[in-house]
Amino acid sequence: MDERETGLKARLVDVGVDLVAEEGAQALTLREIARRAGVSHGAPRRYFPTHLDLLSAIARRGFADLGARVTEAVGDGAASPRAQLTALGRVYLDFALSRRGMYELMFRHDLLASDRLGLRETSLPLFGVLIDLVGRVRPATEARITAGALWANLHGIAQLWSWGSLQLGTGASDFALLLRAALDAHLGPEEA
Predict the structure, then answer these.
(1) Backbone angles phi, psi at 86, to 5 degrees
(2) Which end of the chain is more exposed for a tag (fewer CB within 10 A), N or C?
(3) For 63-67, 96-100, 105-109, 158-162, which range has the lowest pLDDT when averaged over its residues?
(4) What whole-number percentage of the chain has pLDDT above 90?
């Protein structure tokens, strides 16, 4: 693939990233991405043979963005594992709520199950960070299972918060209290 073709392929993904941010995952049609990129509606198929391939390329960008945010939040590892988990949880929830369309796209079952462009492998390093930190906070636990339960809890907080259900049910104006409660539930209370 020459430089011009590589540029067009990246532009199609860029347009998709912008479109999902503006209008949500449901707006990601090949035709609309091509229109916004200024190419024929068949052009994306040259680089992305299926719609799932293009959606996966866009979702990979989301995982890269979230991964960079987590890396920055966790820092150099100088903070305690519990503090790093708190930072990771806050970044995850902030991302889920501020980049709602991308977040929904990233965790679509059909994309992850199809494993187009190695999407599962792109998402696993983030889960690995969570497993490592959980294992360091609670060495006696099955870290992968506890991390999975914590992740599911964070995912649920993100979904229910975006719907307004948690604010209504708890009276909370910030998800920080819910994050702390989730960490306490899965890891035990924070040591003083």
Answers:
(1) -65, -45
(2) C
(3) 105-109
(4) 73
pLDDT(164) > 70: yes
Q: Long-range contacts: 22-26, Cβ < 8 Å, 24+? A: 22/101, 23/101, 24/100, 24/101, 24/104, 25/101, 25/102, 25/104, 25/105, 25/108
- The residue among 96, 106, 102 whose CA lies nearest residue 160 is 96
Taking the C-alpha atoms of residue 12 and residue 49, their distance in angstroms, rounded to an integer, is 13
**CB contact set of 64 (below 8 Å; sequence gap of 6+):** 122
Average pLDDT, the chain: 91
Which region holds residue 75: left if phi is over 0, alpha if psi is between -120 and 50, else beta?
A: left
> Considering Cα of 12, then 13, then 16, then 21, what sign does the dihedral take?
negative
Which tokens sit at 69? 């945010």
Which residues, 6+ apart, have CB-to-CB distance to 187 below 8 Å?
A: 82, 85, 134, 137, 138, 146, 150
Look at 42-51, 74-83, 160-169, 174-183 and tell me which has the smallest mean pLDDT: 42-51
Q: Lowest-pLDDT range, 48-57, 117-126, 182-191? A: 117-126
User: Which one-letter amino acid corresponds to residue 21?
Assistant: A
